[in-house]
Amino acid sequence: MKLFWGSSYGFPTPLPTGRFKDYIRRHEIVASHFHSAYPDATTTIVLSSLELDAKLRDFRARTENMDAEGFARAWQAFLTDAQRCL
Amino acid sequence: VNRDPDRSGQAGALTVLTAIAPGAEADLRAYLEGLRAGPSPLARLPGTHFGRWVIVSDLVAENEREPDHLAAAHLLFTASFDGPADPYLDALCDELAAEAKEIWGRCAGAPQPAAGAALKAYLRAHHHKTGFFVAAYPDATVATVRAALAQRTEAIAFARDAQSMDPGQLQAAFLERLGG
Prior knowledge:
The structure holds two protein chains of two kinds.
Chain A: H1 2-5, H2 17-26, E1 33-36, H3 43-63, H4 68-82
Chain B: E1 7-8, E2 11-19, H1 25-34, E3 48-56, E4 74-82, H2 85-95, H3 97-103, H4 116-125, H5 142-161, H6 167-178
Antiparallel strand pairs in B: 1-2, 2-4, 3-4
Helix pairs in contact in B: 2-4, 5-6
């Protein structure tokens, strides 16, 4: 924060956070128009989705020739591994 | 190492700052705020992750001895998008032709009409290199992100549904719903 705003007039240092937040709020300008291509997704959800995609690709490749019983066991292991993405 | 400050992976950043023509700020603000009523025109620009128009009316003083003030209100346009800037600017000047006339047409020195190659040159002339640009998922395009989000939604539903399936049903349903 010091590197970004340290050369600006009135910068109160990052701590305590209350004064810093007041400084940012004083200089905030609301956008007249804002667009997001995926407005309902947080950055965390996007990153989880991309990680899940990679895991699913790997899972598909590993289970391509498995019989149903083996697939079911692999699915349970997959759920354990990928649960933080879901 | 990517040395272009407007790049982060495959993602690009565009920052354009233009002075608003005298007396045009209120109409420009009303036009931009009116865009909220319908789908954003930026949704028609392929590969746009985020975009915004911001009117900077003046600077906020911080007890400087000689506070700086803008001689004119300015319009800031920023976007994060897929791929290089040049084709993105082409698409912007083409796909957003009607809106661009209403937006940059109200800015000082803009071509009249604000469209086509003349608008692209105007935006280029008022482009500012980004000081620091970071994308949280720099190699994912808009299409990739949307597909991954939809797949995650389907995976969550499938995980719930699969609890009551026997192994044969599970494998067949997976291939049907998440088989790629």
